[in-house]
C-alpha cells in the first residue's frame, strides 16, 4: 500500500489542478458515438442501444467536424474514442475512420468484437486504430445471457484472437462489467485472460444507469465491492495488468492502488462527446438530459462550444448536497462522478463512503 501522507499530498495537488481546469479545460478525449445500433442487447447498457433507429451524422459531417477540430485545436495530445452501439455496424465506419487517420488523429475503439475477423482486423490496422477494448462480461453462459446474445462469447473471443493475430496494435484490452451474479467468476476469468496475449484487463462495476436500473439484483453489495477492489489490488501487487476504470473516488486506502492515478471526473474538463445525431455533450455515460446538451456540430463549431459552454460540468457537485458538502473527503471526491449523480434528488447514486472508507 502506498504512503497515506503521499496520497493526501497528491490529492490536494489534484484538487488545485481541478479548479484550474474549470477555467482552462484541456480536451484530451473526444468520444464519437457513431451509431446507437447494436447487435447485442446488454442488461446494463447505459445508452439503451440495440435495434434502434436514430439520426446519424454523415461522412461529410465527420470530415467537417474533425477538420475544424484539427484547425482550431490541433490533433496533438488528443484521442478519438470511438463507440456506439457497436461502432462496426456503422456502414461508413472505415470511411469515417480513414478520414480521422488521414487528418492525423490517434484513435481507439470500444467494441463487442463479434464482427471482427482477420480481414476486419487488417482493415482496422489500415485506418490507424491504435487501441481497442473488448467486452467480455463473464464465462460463456453468463456473458451470453447478460448480453442477451447467443454465441456472443465465442464470437467475441474469436474477434480478440484475430486482433492479436494481426498484431501491432498499441493495446488490446478486455473490459469486464462485474455484477452480483458474476463476481465469483473473476479468478477463472483471470486464468483465461492470463493465457492470452492481451495488454490489460479492465474490471469495472455495473453502474446504476440505463437498463441497469431495471436490474437491481445485479448491482454489487458492499461485500462485493470490498472483494472486487481487493481482488484488483492483489493482482496489481503481483504485477498483473489488471485495473479499475476511471469512475468513483475510492478513499485513501484504495486510491492509486487499483488504477494508475487518482480519481478525477474529467467530464467537460478533459472529455467531450459527439452523439450519433451530432449533439455535443460531456461524457456519453451521463444521463441524457436536455440541459446537458451544449450544442450540435451541425450548427455549432465544436471549439467554440468547448471554450464557452460546459459550465454545468465545471463545478463541484458536492456543493449541491448538504451531506456531501459536510463530508471530510469532499475536496477529493467533489461529489463523485457526473454519470452516477441523481440530478433530480441532487445526490450520488453510488458513494463508497461507509463501504470502502
What does this structure look like?
The chain is of the alpha/beta class and 357 residues long. It is 33% helix and 15% strand. The strands form two sheets. A ten-stranded mixed sheet has the order 7-6-5-4-3-2-1-8-9-10, with helices on one face. Strands 11-12 form a two-stranded antiparallel ribbon. Strand 8 (271-274) and strand 9 (279-281) form a beta hairpin. It is globular, with a radius of gyration of 20 Å. The two termini are 15 Å apart.
Biggest sheet architecture = 10 strands, mixed
Strand order of the largest sheet: 7-6-5-4-3-2-1-8-9-10
Helix content: 25-40%
Strand content: 5-15%
Tell how many strands the DSSP assignment holds.
12
At a glance:
The chain has 357 residues and is an alpha/beta fold.
From the structure above, extract its key features.
357 residues; 15% strand; single chain; alpha/beta; 33% helix; 11 helices; ten-stranded mixed β-sheet; two-stranded antiparallel ribbon
Write the layout of secondary structure elements.
Layout (H helix, E strand, L loop, with lengths): L3 H20 L5 E5 L25 H15 L5 E5 L9 H11 L2 E6 L6 H9 L2 E7 L4 H7 L5 H15 L4 E8 L7 H9 L5 E6 L16 H16 L4 E2 L27 E4 L4 E3 L13 E2 L5 H7 L13 H4 L4 H4 L7 E2 L4 E2 L9
Amino acid at each position: 500500500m502506498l504512503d497515506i501522507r503521499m496520497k493526501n499530498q497528491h490529492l490536494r495537488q489534484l484538487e488545485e489542478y481541478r479548479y484550474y481546469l474549470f477555467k482552462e479545460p484541456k480536451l484530451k478525449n473526444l468520444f464519437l458515438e457513431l451509431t446507437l445500433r447494436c447487435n447485442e442487447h446488454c442488461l446494463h447498457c447505459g445508452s439503451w442501444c440495440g435495434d434502434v433507429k436514430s439520426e446519424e451524422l454523415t461522412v461529410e459531417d465527420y470530415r467537417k467536424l474533425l477538420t475544424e477540430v484539427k484547425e482550431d485545436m490541433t490533433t496533438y495530445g488528443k484521442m478519438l474514442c470511438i463507440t456506439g452501439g457497436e461502432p462496426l455496424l456503422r456502414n461508413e465506419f472505415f470511411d469515417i475512420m480513414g478520414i480521422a487517420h488521414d487528418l492525423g488523429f490517434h484513435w481507439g475503439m470500444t467494441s463487442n468484437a463479434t464482427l471482427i475477423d482477420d480481414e476486419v482486423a487488417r482493415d482496422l490496422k489500415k485506418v490507424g486504430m491504435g487501441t481497442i477494448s473488448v467486452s467480455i462480461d463473464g464465462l460463456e453462459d453468463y456473458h451470453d445471457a447478460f448480453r442477451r446474445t447467443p454465441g456472443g462469447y465465442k464470437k467475441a473471443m474469436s474477434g480478440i484472437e484475430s486482433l492479436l493475430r494481426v498484431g501491432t496494435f498499441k493495446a488490446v484490452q478486455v473490459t469486464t462489467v462485474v455484477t452480483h451474479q458474476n463476481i465469483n467468476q473473476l479468478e477463472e476469468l483471470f486464468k483465461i485472460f492470463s493465457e492470452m496475449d492481451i495488454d490489460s484487463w479492465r474490471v469495472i462495476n455495473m453502474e446504476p444507469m440505463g437498463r441497469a436500473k431495471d436490474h437491481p439484483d445485479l448491482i454489487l453489495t458492499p461485500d462485493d465491492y470490498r472483494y472486487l477492489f481487493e481482488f484488483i489490488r492483489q493482482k496489481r501487487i503481483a504485477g498483473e495488468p489488471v485495473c479499475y476504470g476511471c469512475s468513483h473516488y475510492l478513499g485513501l486506502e484504495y486510491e492509486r492502488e487499483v488504477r494508475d492515478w487518482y480519481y478525477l471526473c474529467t467530464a467537460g474538463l478533459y472529455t467531450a462527446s459527439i452523439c450519433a445525431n451530432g449533439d455535443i455533450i460531456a461524457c456519453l455515460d451521463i444521463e441524457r438530459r436536455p440541459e446537458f446538451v451544449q450544442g450540435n456540430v451541425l450548427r455549432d463549431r465544436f471549439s467554440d462550444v468547448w471554450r464557452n459552454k460546459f459550465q454545468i460540468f465545471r463545478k463541484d457537485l458536492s456543493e449541491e448536497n448538504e451531506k456531501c458538502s459536510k463530508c471530510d473527503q469532499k475536496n477529493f471526491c467533489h461529489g463523485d462522478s457526473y454519470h452516477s449523480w441523481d440530478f433530480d434528488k441532487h445526490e450520488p447514486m453510488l458513494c463508497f463512503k461507509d463501504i470502502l472508507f
